[in-house]
Design goal:
69% of the residues lie in helices and 0% in strands. The protein starts with 9 loop residues before the first helix and ends in a 9-residue tail after the last helix.
Length: 77
């Protein structure tokens, strides 16, 4: 990914997703189901919006964030 500034509407989009998650939790939908549905939707949107190689790079960045502990806020060796 590049060091570009995030889109101006990113904060708004994030707030909408947060509200959708709150709603689904309120509907007693499990966390794994919510996350899987959001990830599936995001992947489908990416597939319509960017080249496959860009999707691979996004996924590689996500994998690195998991491995480094960044998602949990913990440093791991």
């Amino acid at each position: 990914m590049t060091d570009e500034q995030p889109p101006e509407d990113l904060s708004h989009a994030g707030a909408v997703v947060d509200k959708a998650i709150e709603y689904m939790i309120g509907q007693n939908i499990g966390a794994l189901s919510i996350a899987s549905a959001l990830l599936g939707g995001a992947m489908a949107l990416l597939a319509r919006s960017v080249a496959d190689e860009a999707i691979v790079q996004i996924l590689n960045n996500a994998i690195e964030s998991v491995r480094s502990g960044e998602l949990r806020g913990v440093d791991r060796p």
